[in-house]
Amino acid sequence: MKNHIGPYRIYILLFLLVIITAEIIWSWRKDRSAYDVKETFANLAVFVGFQFSKYLFAGYQLSILGFFARLAPLKMPHNGWIFAFTFIAADFIYYWFHRVSHSWKPLWAFHLIHHSAMHMNLTAAYRLNWFSALVSPLFFVPVALLGMPIDYIVIAYVLNLAYQFFLHTEVVGTLGVVEKVMDTPSSHRVHHGSNPIYIDKNFGGVFIIWDRLFGTYQPETEKVNYGLTTGFLSYNPFKLVCHGFVYWFKPASSPNLPVNSTPVLEGSPRN
Q: What is the pTM of this model?
């Protein structure tokens, strides 16, 4: 599969460059200030590191899924129905993976970087932790145990993340009836908001129906304030990647942490 995908990587990168450039032009012409030069370069630096990490951890990810797939009592065939089921199951799992990443300190350590962007634009989509591949395959073990083909699981997750890239923009407004079923730029802007009304909302990847079912849906009703609730973090990609882990190991009694009767994550929408 790698040999088939390889020749298209340059075209994918060119496509991303074109639409990001188009968004920059839109932001400039509409005076929307969706881009900050320093933050954009920080996003791109994180993106480069994340691409490298995918090669570094690919074997580990496939080994985890392969191990549990061998334990599955049944092996599902390759066909359209099985792929559709795998895609929906992967999106359901992503919802819970994402939701837990906002409420459990160890997973917030990986996810914090994504919410540290102060501007919503397409480059912010790749503000992803370089080490997230260490934990993400563990959440997809149930699909492997159901006997879903490993390549289907991988493709479903890749498509899920690819779809989410297009959600990180202010170019697209609300989409009417689509908002009831699919995650949209409007729904995802809410997710990135530090406004009190937007706290811990809209965790869906492709479908927003999980949020509607489990009580975490919130429509975009007021201007979104982006970034961590603690404010600006850094332009340094290494600090952005590592800050969540530094916070993870801070003593609970640290004066820099808010005191509350319930767990609170630094900079998170729960803060």
A: 0.89
